[in-house]
Amino acid sequence: MGAAQVQVRQGFAALYGAEPEGVWSAPGRVNLIGEHTDYNDGFVMPFALPHTAVAAVSRRTDGRLRLHSADVEGGIVELSLDDLAPESDKNWTAYPAGVVWALREAGHPVTGADVHLSSTVPSGAGLSSSAALEVVVALALNDLYELGLKRWQLARLCQRAENVYVGAPTGIMDQTASACCEAGHALFLDTRDLSQRQIPFDLAAEGMRLLVVDTQVKHAHSGGEYGKRRAGCEQGADLLGVHALRDVDHAELDTALERLGDEEEVRRLVRHVVTEDARVERVVDLLKAGDTRAIGPVLTEGHASLRDDFRVSCPELDLVVDTALAAGALGARMTGGGFGGSAIVLAEEADVVAITKAVEDAFATAGFTAPRVFEAVPSPGATRLA
Ligand code: ADP
Ligand code: MG
């Protein structure tokens, strides 16, 4: 039994005075390529982190929901299932409560739960601590109440919880990654029909590493900038007469951009989304061909597009990318929604120490908060631990 599992189980027993019926875990994720494509019906390619949310859960029959996080100050939060209402809760409890709300809204007979959880996924770092929280609770309730929902269906319900209950307009990537990823693989996900392919992604076997650099700049996902980008993409699709930007053919991009005339802002957004979808397909092709090192420049191109066209980077993320590349990285880019959060760096194993030091030195020189650098190994998706 892992240490986290033991701690969460013991924490549950101490709080609620009984052993939990089970213990589950769900990981955070990092997106290899395919940013801001998931709400445009496009492609994404996340893989699961070794960092997880672990939850001990038992059923209740009295319509009450009790929630506790080892990582948040304050005691048990107790809610009545009948009182759960969208956007009624601005605290962390909105994520698990939203999942219960979404399950019940969809007609599933959930009659209450006691939940105690703890997470090693850094919060607000663009690594999807929120999806880990949602998915771990959804999987626990699916098992305990024998709902028989498939992983992709749980992901959908979790997305609904985050969009409607929490009020954060995010796409389907984070929840699907947490629910469906497999160790040693990246998940090639078509966000239009939710079809998935597990693509072998084992960098260590080829002498490479993937670093995650958490800039410690907290992004605000539900903030206005994200909403503006989303609205701009919808406007672009409307102007081009397509259902979603996914439907703009990469080979016809120039023609499409011409048709947008002097809508400069929309043009930049469209150019990013269409080229980004093409980059995901290129990365899939390169990995399938065993040409892993060649994905480096594609990642770096993706960063330039997010910085210059989509305009969601920030000085800290740009500094990671520029410094890592100058220190010999094969490729680097911001990952996640942007405005802070994390960057990823693809590097030869032999260069990892020098790159890490270069990034840390550059942050110190710039007067930025020291970044957190760790290696990301493609890890398992959500699972029942006990
Ligand atoms: P991200 O998903 O990129 O980490 P979000 O803003 O989407 O960032 O989600 C972060 C929020 O998730 C936190 O503000 C908090 O409400 C909740 N959260 C994350 N981890 C925990 C935890 N261990 N315990 C309680 N709440 C958590
Ligand atoms: Mg999130």
From TrEMBL:
Gene Ontology biological process terms from the UniProt entry: galactose metabolic process
Residue positions binding substrate: E35, H36, T37, D38, Y226
Domain Galactokinase N-terminal: residue ranges: 12-59
UniProt-annotated catalytic positions: D174
Binding positions for ATP per the UniProt entry: S69, G124, A125, G126, L127, S128, S129, S130
GO molecular-function terms, A-Z: ATP binding; galactokinase activity; magnesium ion binding
Gene Ontology cellular component list: cytosol
Chief location bin: cytoplasm
Transition state stabilizer (site feature) positions: R29
InterPro entries given in the database record: Galactokinase, Galactokinase_bac, Galactokinase_CS, GalKase_N, GHMP_kinase_C_dom, GHMP_kinase_C_sf, GHMP_kinase_N_dom, GHMP_knse_ATP-bd_CS
Presence of the UniProt keyword Glycoprotein in the record: no
Top EC class for this record: transferase
A Pfam family of this chain: GalKase_gal_bdg
Subcellular location: Cytoplasm
UniProt-listed Enzyme Commission number(s): 2.7.1.6
Matching PROSITE patterns: GALACTOKINASE, GHMP_KINASES_ATP
Similarity comment: family membership: Belongs to the GHMP kinase family. GalK subfamily.
Record's function text: Catalyzes the transfer of the gamma-phosphate of ATP to D-galactose to form alpha-D-galactose-1-phosphate (Gal-1-P).
Protein name, entry field: Galactokinase
Organism of provenance: Streptomyces adustus
Lineage: Bacteria, Bacillati, Actinomycetota, Actinomycetes, Kitasatosporales
